[in-house]
Structures are given as structure tokens and as C-alpha cells.
């Protein structure tokens, strides 16, 4: 589809948005379209069947066209190409000292400039509000009065913004692992710090019970102490794996990415064990495919689309001294992740957003699903969005450390609530608590 770059200039430049459609399994039972977003910001969303095909019930698959969409600036929807970043991610820890923070500050400024030097007019329009407008163009192009929607992680922010901007256009809205719009983007990242520390403690208990296998410590305290020492060791001498230096900036980021799913506890333990074995030694090659993939992404990839959308959506602090003070203040209670959650990002050097962030306060019906142990979108975010969307119901997945709850074999209770809503349009009569299935590993 062709859409305006700037919806305030409908006769100006245009860009394209790519969508996909998997038609409803039973045309006679078809009730509409179900659009989805897998998160990010910056994740490609065309493959709606891969995201939802193994968790939606046969009845829902029969009744909806599944609509995938690459948001503007992402994938086949006008991604601008690489900015030329020296590292793959804009999110990383400031490290253990002021010198590390100074390094990240200079690097972040360069990362922002290298993106904006080419076409700032275009990049500044890669915003969630514009993507919501694009979604409504999709709805109109498909000749639908309303759209149903499933969004996870960042997709919940996009969905919430859509309900605020187009309150009459949403049909059955499911927001899985929700972001509090008032905390997006910088506030969300800050909230990762304490949530990641809790997740680390939870994993440390699991690893301590398996000390015979992983040799990371016989008690949770020993496991945590070992991780904290490994970060300090990586600061003294980076752990070079597959040509990439895993140092005190990147080790917390690697852990942050892995701790959001208890189902990969063993992979976390194997990764920590592998890095601990390599610490203080010569450059080495990765032993596990998972670590190899992580290192390759940091060494060779570039997630600049995240910056283009997040920085375009929400203004960040520009007082560099405040970042450092926040980092130092966080170290006592957040020894591993405080310097990541409070670190400077390219957003500090980005132009101010072209529009103010959307304030979400509405009564549009929606189903919000949140795990209490989610470190990526902490539980408090779901509670706050539930309050702000007065017509919503909330399903809590209790005592589970996981991000994205709509998964095969995780909780039949969660899956039933979501499928029932999409199929029958029935929200729970009241907020509901679910648990992981007993057979879940």
C-alpha cells in the first residue's frame, strides 16, 4: 500500500507499507480480519501465521483472515538500510566505571548522527502514531469496518495507541505482555533494571539446584556472586568469542535478552558456563549455536530500526550528567543491570519527536494478558494499562517468568481466554488468574 510519509501533508511524499493475508479457513464463518504485531519496535510482522498459527483455535482460524504487516520503516515497508553502526544494538550497559559511560556517550551520539544524516525528514516519521494511521488505512483498504488485533510487547503499545486514536475501529483487541504507555520508551528501559535483577535471582535458584551439572554455585547467592564477578572479569579483560569482545557492556545485555523466558534456563546456564570458562583466556570459538548466534548479531547485525522508531516516538533526557547519576545510584540494588537500564542511548541525541506521545485513556474493550514474572514488560505495566483502558479485562499468568504468554503448552487457561475472546467476543466477567500447565518444563 502507498501511504503518506507525513499525515499532516497528504499531498507530500509517500512511502509503502507491506501487508500479508492468510484467508479465513471457512468463508461461511468469516467474521473479519485479525491483524497482529510481534513486538520490537522494529520487528517484522508479515508472517502472522508463524506468530499465531499454532496457538489460535481452529474456530478462530476459520473465522478470521490473518493480516501481517511490516510497520513503516521495518522490513519490506521502506526500511532504509544500515546506518553503519559499529555494534549491533543501541542498548547495552555503561560498564563498571565512568570511562565506559563516556565511551557509550560518544558512540551513541555517532550512532544517532549516522542514521539521521541521510534522510531525517523520512526517519522522523517512522513513529507509532503513523503506524497506527497506516493500520487504519489497511482496515479501509480491506473494506472492513473494524479490525481485531493481537499485539505482544511493543505490539501492545501500538495496539493501545490505535485504540486511543481510532476508538470506534477496534473489534476484539488482545494485548499480551503490555507496556504502560506513560513509561514508553525511556521509562520502560529504566524499569528493566529491577525486573532483570529479580529474574536473575529466580534463575540463580534454578542453577544452584543443578550445581553438579553447571558448576555455577551451590546456592543462589553463590550463583549471583559468580555472575557479578564475571562482569567485573569481563571489564578487566574482555572475553573474545568468535572475534567479538564480550565485555562489561555486553555481558549484561546478553543476560537481559535470555532471562525473559524460564523455559531456556538451561541455555542461560550453558552460556554463563561457557563465558566463565573462557574468561581470562585467549580468544576462542563459541561452543553452542545459541551463543554463536548472539555474538554474530552483536558483531555483524544492526538493529537501527529500533532507534528510528523508539527515538522518533518519545523524547529522551539530554542531560548527560543525569544518566551517570542514575547509573551510580542504581548500582547498590541493581549490580548487574542498573548500568544497562539507566545508560545513555542514541535517543539522547535524536531530534525531538514530530508529535507528542499518545496519552492512552479510553474505555475500548480489550483483553490484557500479563505474566507476574515478566522482566521485559514488568507486571506493573500491565496493571497500569488495565487502569487506563477502563473497558479492559486482565488475565494474570501467576508466578511465571516469561515474556509473551500466548504460547503452545504454556497455559491452557491463558490460551482459552484469548481464543474465547477472538471466537465469541466474550471477555471474562472479571479479572482472572491463570497458572502454567503442570506439565510445562
Sum up the structure in keywords.
441 residues, alpha/beta, Rossmann fold, eight-stranded mixed β-sheet, two-stranded antiparallel sheet, 17 helices, 12 strands, 13% strand, globular, Pept_S33_TAP-like_C, Alpha/beta fold hydrolase, hydrolase, signal
Overview of this structure, please?
- By secondary structure, the chain is an alpha/beta fold.
- It has a domain at about 1-80 and about 130-185 and about 360-435: 3-Layer(aba) Sandwich (Rossmann fold).
- It contains 17 helices and twelve strands.
- The strands form three sheets. An eight-stranded mixed β-sheet has the order 3-5-4-6-7-10-11-12, with helices on both faces. A two-stranded antiparallel ribbon has the order 1-2.
- Helix 16 links the parallel strand 10 and strand 11 (about 390-395).
- The longest helix is centred in the middle third of the chain and has 23 residues, at about 185-210.
- The two termini are about 45 Å apart.
- The mean pLDDT is about 95.
Amino acid at each position: 500500500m502507498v501511504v503518506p510519509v507525513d499525515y499532516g501533508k497528504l499531498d507530500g511524499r509517500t512511502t509503502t507499507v507491506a501487508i500479508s493475508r492468510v484467508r479465513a479457513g471457512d468463508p461461511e464463518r468469516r467474521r473479519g480480519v485479525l491483524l497482529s504485531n510481534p513486538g520490537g519496535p522494529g520487528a517484522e510482522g508479515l508472517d502472522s501465521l508463524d506468530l499465531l498459527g499454532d496457538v489460535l483455535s481452529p474456530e478462530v482460524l476459520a473465522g478470521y483472515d490473518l493480516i501481517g504487516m511490516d510497520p513503516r520503516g521495518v522490513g519490506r515497508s521502506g526500511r532504509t538500510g544500515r546506518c553503519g553502526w559499529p555494534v549491533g544494538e543501541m542498548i547495552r550497559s555503561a560498564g563498571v566505571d565512568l570511562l565506559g559511560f563516556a565511551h557509550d556517550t560518544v558512540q551513541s551520539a555517532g550512532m544517532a548522527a549516522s542514521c539521521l544524516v541521510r534522510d531525517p525528514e523520512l526517519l522522523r516519521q517512522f513513529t507509532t502514531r503513523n503506524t497506527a494511521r497506516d493500520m487504519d488505512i489497511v482496515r479501509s483498504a480491506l473494506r472492513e469496518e473494524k479490525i481485531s488485533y493481537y499485539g505482544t510487547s511493543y505490539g501492545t503499545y501500538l495496539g493501545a495507541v490505535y485504540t486511543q486514536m481510532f476508538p470506534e475501529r477496534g473489534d476484539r483487541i488482545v494485548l499480551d505482555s503490555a507496556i504502560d504507555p506513560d513509561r514508553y520508551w525511556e521509562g520502560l528501559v529504566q524499569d528493566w533494571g529491577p525486573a532483570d535483577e529479580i529474574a536473575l535471582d529466580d534463575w540463580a535458584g534454578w542453577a544452584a539446584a543443578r550445581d553438579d551439572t553447571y558448576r555455577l554455585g551451590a546456592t543462589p547467592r553463590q550463583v549471583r556472586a559468580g555472575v557479578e564477578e564475571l562482569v567485573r572479569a569481563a571489564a578487566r579483560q574482555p572475553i573474545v568469542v568468535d572475534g567479538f569482545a564480550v565485555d562489561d557492556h555486553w555481558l549484561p545485555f546478553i543476560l537481559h535478552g535470555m532471562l525473559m523466558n524460564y523455559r531456556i534456563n538451561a541455555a542461560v546456564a550453558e552460556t554463563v558456563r561457557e563465558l566463565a570458562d573462557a574468561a581470562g583466556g585467549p580468544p576462542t570459538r563459541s561452543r553452542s549455536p545459541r551463543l554463536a548466534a548472539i555474538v554474530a548479531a552483536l558483531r555483524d547485525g544492526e538493529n537501527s530500526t529500533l532507534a528510528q522508531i523508539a527515538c522518533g516516538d518519545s523524547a529522551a533526557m539530554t542531560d548527560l550528567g543525569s544518566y551517570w547519576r542514575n547509573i551510580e545510584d542504581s548500582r547498590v540494588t541493581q549490580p548487574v543491570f542498573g548500568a544497562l537500564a539507566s545508560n545513555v542511548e542514541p535517543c539522547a541525541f535524536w531530534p525531538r519527536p514530530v508529535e507528542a506521545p499518545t496519552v492512552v485513556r479510553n474505555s475500548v474493550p480489550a483483553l490484557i494478558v500479563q505474566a507476574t514474572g515478566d522482566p521485559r514488560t514488568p507486571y506493573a505495566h500491565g496493571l497500569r494499562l488495565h487502569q487506563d483502558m477502563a473497558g479492559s479485562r486482565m488475565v494474570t499468568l501467576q508466578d511465571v517468568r516469561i515474556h509473551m504468554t500466548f504460547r503452545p503448552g504454556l497455559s491452557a487457561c491463558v490460551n482459552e481466554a484469548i481464543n474465547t475472546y477472538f471466537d465469541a467476543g466474550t471477555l471474562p466477567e472479571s479479572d482472572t488468574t491463570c497458572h502454567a500447565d503442570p506439565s510445562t518444563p
